[in-house]
Amino acid sequence: MEYRKIKDEDKDEGAAGDDIESLRNKSISAPISNVATLGGESNDRSKWKRNLGKNLENEGVTEDNRLSTTLDEVSVYPIPAALYLVKNLLQYYIFAYVDAPGYQILKNLNIISTGVLYQMILKRKLSEIQWAAFILLCAGCTTAQLNPSSDHVLQTPYQGWIMAIVMALLSGFAGVYTEAIIKKRPSRNINVQNFWLYVFGMVFNAVAILIQDFDAVMNKGFFHGYSLITVLMILNHALSGIAVSMVMKYADNIVKVYATSVAMLLTAIVSVFLFGFHLSLAFFLGSTVVSVSVYLHSIGKLTRQR
Amino acid sequence: MEYRKIKDEDKDEGAAGDDIESLRNKSISAPISNVATLGGESNDRSKWKRNLGKNLENEGVTEDNRLSTTLDEVSVYPIPAALYLVKNLLQYYIFAYVDAPGYQILKNLNIISTGVLYQMILKRKLSEIQWAAFILLCAGCTTAQLNPSSDHVLQTPYQGWIMAIVMALLSGFAGVYTEAIIKKRPSRNINVQNFWLYVFGMVFNAVAILIQDFDAVMNKGFFHGYSLITVLMILNHALSGIAVSMVMKYADNIVKVYATSVAMLLTAIVSVFLFGFHLSLAFFLGSTVVSVSVYLHSIGKLTRQR
């Protein structure tokens, strides 16, 4: 309840202080610090009132939903694309040190890195109980994924650990930075924000294709090997990408991490009915810990420090 | 801090309201309800002042440390002894349905039953966070004990589950009842209280020996098979029994459950150095969850409902 109220204030203050027009002359090197003040104490509502008329023009092309942009706005969009590119490339190299189930387990480090970077970069403080809940979320998700060969991950060589930690930091930073970009202009249309995020994603991936797979694409064509399943997976990824951007805009990375974790558990439960999956005792224990974590996160909001 | 204060008040009020003399004429059938009022609102300190002189006589034989007792005091002591006897006998029968590692896992149900009975019988309310911590303690201890064959426990037949639940309830009830007995007379010497607890334990066990092992004891003698290890184990059990009774008198069953759980984790860590034990990933995850649980229990005290 209280948290909801804080978030609404954020949006109002954002609409007042961070409108495109008012930011046009600001330094392009300070996008994050602008966002960090979203939850600040400013009670200056006059700008908000001035912009009210503008926000009501929600039909046709307006300043908020037009595709054209400024260097100031667009200059930060390549950053998450570049971070995800590096992280995705690392993903190929880490398998020299870790097997696939081990990698699934190490991926849970994302939860901790997202929490740390969320607090550091967005300056939104998590309460002590919420931090406890976050550690439990990480431990619970890992427990739920345990299988008899999981202990192999403890024999991961230090290069594997370093890569896993770097990947978790890159992924966490990219997520938090995307939230900062999207939240920086709360009145800006989300589809336009997605457009610019994906444009740079496409550019970087095109470069990666040119470097890594140029011959294969030239000989067999770009769509070689595409099946119905491939197309469905692309659609699925595109839709979940849009959903994630909405979570970034209207909620935050913490909600995203919880949603992803609960989705993992629900996927396992659905797999019982669809594929006759066998749920382990570890899954029940991990699910219990994740459930308590969700509960603690929600009651932690009420006592959170501001 | 606040909890400590409440506890101190309990002791004072106990010393005032539940002195042996003043209880001598009370009904012997209401030992628990007396204890349940220990945390009550009574501010009547006059009796406390009257008894102050008596409490200071702490040398030689006094009313508090003399071994002789009244029917009122002693009548409740056989109850925990009987409960533990039934629980220990059930332990032989449950192995028809569960293997030893499975039983270790089911034993963690004790944690939940102790929490439920503690709140129901001693009427000390655990806060919401403390309940969350208690569920985590149970899940974390079980996780720490996971091994590749743990999933067998999910195939336990319903008779095994029922016996495990009954054993957990008996053990939880015996623990909480012992705390009620010991706390009922806060000024009574703890060694005397232990004496009477163990007298009935010995009587019940003597009966069990007569019924189950009469021939063996007659033919081979009572001490047949005793080795140095046996004697050391008896000493160890005796000392830990005295330690537990002190926890019951000066702390409570919740502290006992946490202490037992943390001791289990420490035993595993010590075993790494002594016996070259191999710690599993599940152990690290379970230990993490238990650690967060201990932390949450302690901050839960500050916000606990009274």
TrEMBL record, chains A, B:
Pfam family, one: Nuc_sug_transp
Comp. bias regions, Acidic residues: 10-20
GO MF assignments: pyrimidine nucleotide-sugar transmembrane transporter activity
Region listing for Disordered, in residue ranges: 1-22
The keyword Lyase is assigned to this record: no
Lipid bilayer topology: Multi-pass membrane protein
GO CC aspect terms: Golgi membrane
Subcellular location: Membrane
Keywords: Membrane, Transmembrane, Transmembrane helix
Top-rank taxon, per record: Eukaryota
Membrane-crossing segments per the record: 129-146, 158-182, 194-211, 223-245, 257-275, 281-300
Protein's UniProt name: CMP-sialic acid transporter
